[in-house]
Amino acid sequence: MIERIPAGIDDPRITELARELVSEMVAIYTGIHDAPQPLDPRIAWVLLSNDDGTPVACGALQPFDKSVPGSPLTIGEVKRVYVRPHHRGSGLGHVVMDELEAWAPDLGYTILRLETGTRQPEALALYRSRGWQPIDKYGPYTHEPTSVCFELNLGPNPDVS
């Protein structure tokens, strides 16, 4: 089951998954990332649950101006894409990204950006396979040696008549 959880709603299932993700990121990037950046209260979530209602994956969208103050509000940032370890390899990352990319225009976003890391080859492959383009590091990630940033333009293709 896929749910869209609007900004401003605290959901314990999201809190549970986000806690697992933070623990995993701190373990992967020991000494580099003390902890991920706090989330913006304007964040909107996608939650995937299995048939019995157990949460298995999530992802979020927040205004890009959280990471780069003064940015246009038409730029969104993908955050906290996470699939529980025993559900990985089954395409759930694509399901989360499909939903985030589909929902983004409804939230006013025409461009999406994200940051991931060199120690997450599956994440890098996921974003590249979806047509996300590498961009320069931004905001808090500018000087992070392991950061890799991407962008996806959600607008119509200017080369198509």
What report would you give on this structure?
A hairpin with a 5-residue loop joins strand 2 and strand 3 (55-63). A seven-stranded mixed β-sheet has the order 1-2-3-4-5-7-6, sandwiched between helices. The longest helix is centred in the first third of the chain and has 17 residues, at 12-28. It is globular. It is 24% helix and 28% strand. The N and C termini lie far apart (37 Å). The chain has 161 residues and is an alpha+beta fold. 29% of the residues are buried.
Keywords for this entry:
24% helix; alpha+beta; 161 residues; globular; single chain; 28% strand; 3 helices
- Given helix and strand content, the structural type is alpha+beta
Q: Which geometry do the CA atoms define?
A: globular
Q: Return the average pLDDT rounded to an integer.
A: 91
Strand order of the largest sheet: 1-2-3-4-5-7-6
Number of strands: 7
N to C succession of SSEs? EHEEEHEHEE
Radius of gyration of CA atoms, rounded to a whole number: 15 Å
Alpha-carbon distance between the termini? Answer: 37 Å
Q: DSSP strand (E) fraction?
A: 25-35%
Unreliable residue stretches: none
Number of helices: 3
Described by strand count, sense and barrel closure, the largest sheet is: 7 strands, mixed
Helix content: 10-25%
In brief:
This protein has three helices and seven strands; from the N terminus they run E-H-E-E-E-H-E-H-E-E.
Fold topology:
Elements: E1 2-5, H1 12-28, E2 44-49, E3 55-63, E4 75-83, H2 92-103, E5 111-117, H3 121-129, E6 133-135, E7 147-153
Parallel strand pairs: 4-5
Antiparallel strand pairs: 1-2, 2-3, 3-4, 5-7, 6-7
